[in-house]
Design brief:
This protein is mainly α. The protein has 21 helices and three strands. The protein folds into three domains: 183 residues, hpI Integrase, Chain A (Orthogonal Bundle); 95 residues; 89 residues. It is 52% helix and 3% strand. Strands 1-2-3 form a three-stranded antiparallel beta sheet. The longest helix has 22 residues.
Length: 479
């Protein structure tokens, strides 16, 4: 193998994981409810296929999925009073703003923001809450007793701004501070030229390689954004890279000390609660994977990822999944507040009752759906299409959608639709008092967890579209 011919980075990804973490993986692994059942025998508690024939197994999958719907006991057709998206801010105001004991100046500021889009209003509220809380902690004064002069803490603002980077929350914090301290304003540096598209030749080379190895497009998009995030930090933070942009940064210049410094930064972000341990850990693994590839290409003399431990995080984090009542409240919230209730309800239903991922839902096309046969074709992470039965609860929703010819089921702009589903899920989740942690992918966690009590391990792998029990174990939560 020539120097410039890379080894298979995909197969070497596990080399990046610490030995101790791999041991903990087995120690911390949840005991499945079906752990003591072989894949050839069936528990008395689960639904059993009558025969091993292909057709009977298809019927068995239908039966299992419909049993899942029955176990959740949701009424997706429940009639509720439609209030519209404009009413969401009032709900957020009553549930959160009024419960915070904010000082009057903060309440007045947020009142002026009530006309914003709900997701933006929620983000502004979160920034104000964080800043007011830190002012209270630093001054020793209770939140509701803070005065305008107490909130004019410019040094604290500058510290928080340095942690926010180019986040839009930076703009929200500056805006609030300038409202509190109008005679000592901070220039809003967020309003600048549009962010340039990211196209680094070495990163693109790796993305092309990953694509040829079968990595899904959505995973590659995510990987590219992870490396961009690291490059942007380098250009904004490290002296050696200040003259470069993320598109021109020289990979020959990187040393182990740069990755070590970045790891320290991510660990500090965890302490500041700007990111989760698992999120930081996953991101850092992506960065290490990239530089392992760069080394294998021969662009680096030494493997700068060698002996560089990962960020500590619990590999398995178990939490209670939402109750049936909370899920009913969630879908009722969609019906009450969504700008397109049927579309969003159908999209979220496909995630909950069939385990579709956000990207799979957004890119679903009418040619993938056979209403007559009650089947749906899904192109998963491995780029292979798999045909699954459409659950009884979801079928009426799909039938009621305005069908196109061969286009997308939900939106002509799937990426925008993904963002909308992601943001709106957070809003509906708060409205429905759903305390379970996680974003929209939580619906897939619920799907796999509930299925694990209704079918055999083999069936679970088929319906979850995962080949290994290890992959499935990441999804299982406490019921």
């Amino acid at each position: 193998m020539g120097k410039n011919t890379p080894k298979d980075p995909i197969s070497n990804v596990w080399d990046i994981w610490d030995v101790d973490n791999l041991k903990n993986l087995e120690i911390n692994k949840k005991n499945f409810s079906w752990n003591d059942i072989s894949t050839k025998n069936f528990s008395d508690l689960i639904i059993k296929p009558k025969k091993q024939g292909h057709t009977n197994y298809q019927r068995y999958y239908v039966e299992v999925l419909n049993s899942l719907g029955n176990s959740l006991a949701l009424n997706l057709q429940e009639k509720v009073e439609y209030k519209g998206r404009s009413a969401i801010n009032t709900v957020l105001w009553n549930k959160f703003v009024l419960q915070e004991n904010f000082p009057n100046v903060a309440v007045k500021y947020l009142d002026k923001k009530m006309t914003l889009d709900p997701f933006t209003f929620l983000s502004v509220f979160e920034v104000v809450k964080s800043f007011v809380g830190k002012c209270s902690q630093k001054s020793g004064i209770k939140q509701h007793l803070l005065k305008r002069t107490d909130l004019a803490a410019k040094q604290l603002v500058m510290e928080m701004l340095s942690q926010l980077g180019d986040s839009v929350k930076r703009y929200y914090l500056i805006n609030f501070y300038n409202y509190v301290s109008p005679f000592d304003k901070i220039e809003n540096q967020v309003k600048k030229a549009k962010r340039q598209p990211f196209f680094h030749p070495v990163v693109e080379n790796h993305c092309e390689y990953k694509s040829k190895k079968g990595t899904s497009e959505s995973s590659i998009v995510n990987y590219r954004s992870q490396i961009r995030r690291f490059f942007e930090w380098c250009c904004n933070t490290l002296k050696e890279f200040q003259e470069y942009s993320p598109n021109t940064i020289n990979v020959y210049m990187f040393k182990k000390e740069h990755l070590t410094e970045y790891k320290l930064f991510l660990e500090a972000e965890i302490r500041r609660e700007n990111c989760t341990p698992n999120g930081a850990r996953t991101h850092f693994i992506y960065v290490k994977e990239f530089f392992l590839y760069v080394y294998q290409l021969g662009f680096l003399k030494d493997d700068i990822t060698k002996d560089l431990t990962n960020i500590e995080a619990k590999e398995f984090v178990y939490r209670q999944i939402p109750s049936n009542k909370q899920l009913q409240m969630f879908f009722n919230a969609v019906s009450m507040y969504s700008e397109a209730p049927l579309i969003e309800k159908t999209a979220y239903s496909l995630m909950l009752f069939l385990g579709l991922r956000l990207n799979e839902v957004a890119n679903l096309k009418w040619r993938d759906i056979n209403i007559g046969n009650k089947t749906i074709s899904i192109k998963g992470k491995n780029k292979q299409s798999e045909i699954l039965p459409i659950p009884e609860l979801v079928l009426p929703l799909l039938k009621n959608l305005k069908r196109g010819k061969q286009g997308y089921v939900f939106s002509k702009k799937p990426n925008q639709f993904k963002s909308k589903l992601y943001q709106n899920f957070k809003l509906y989740k708060l409205i429905s008092d759903m305390e379970a942690e996680g974003g929209v992918h939580l619906l897939r966690h619920i799907y796999i967890t509930k299925l694990s009590y209704l079918c055999t391990p083999n069936t679970l792998r088929v319906l979850a579209r995962h080949r290994s029990d290890r992959s499935i174990s990441f999804y299982l939560q406490a019921c």
